[in-house]
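Quick note —
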Amino acid sequence: MDLNEVMASNLRRIRHGKKLTQEELAHRTGLSMRHIGAIERAETSATLTVLGQISEALDVDPREFLAKTSPT
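Predicted structure written out below.
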């Protein structure tokens, strides 16, 4: 699994855990819903700036998006 896929998986997991839709996250970050979706599908890489916006909107440390977790 490459780092984009790790980021995508963690972003989806964290967003779902906070019971937010992609639309709500997009509104909180000022990003488009399409951009959020593309990051979650690992179709595009998040820049450091975007990673910061998302981590702030979700109130998590940016490192949580890059942590490789074992499947449950």
